[in-house]
Specification:
By secondary structure, the chain is of the alpha+beta class. It has 2 helices and 6 strands, in the order αββαββββ. Strands 2-1-6-5-4-3 form a 6-stranded mixed sheet, covered by helices on one side.
Length: 125
């Protein structure tokens, strides 16, 4: 992650864990009624949508190339229980894609909803 102060503290911590040695620790941060959609575009009109509940997140984690891609904050904001995070994905330090994440955190500090869109076709840097 970058050294930029985070206006979206939950999602900032989420991506730090995801990029770390034990990305499965994010499973401890989700609520019982968690749902997500991660639309993962690799360009040329090809995309995969990991959508569903905890099981979908487990499937997403299992297919990831652990330690290869890192998430870098470009900007973020929080409004009530909602956090928005605009970032860049880098592979071995080289920019690969932009992404935006929206998350809703419940009163117990667990993530209830997560929506992520990733594209290599649009860059914000």
């Amino acid at each position: 992650m970058t050294d930029t102060p985070a206006a979206a503290p939950f999602l900032t911590a989420w991506f730090e864990i995801l990029d770390g040695d034990e990305p499965s620790r994010i499973l401890d941060l989700i609520s019982d009624d968690f749902s997500l959609s991660i639309l993962f575009s690799t360009g040329d009109g090809n995309a995969t949508d990991f959508a569903g509940d905890r099981a979908a997140l487990v499937d997403y984690l299992e297919q990831r190339e652990k330690g290869t891609r890192t998430h870098h904050l470009l900007s973020a904001t929080t409004l009530g229980q909602d956090e928005l995070f605009l970032g860049e994905v880098r592979r071995a330090g080289v920019p690969e894609a932009s992404f935006v994440a929206a998350g809703r955190v419940n009163g117990e500090g667990r993530l209830r909803r997560l929506l992520i869109g990733r594209s290599s076709e649009v860059r914000f840097t």
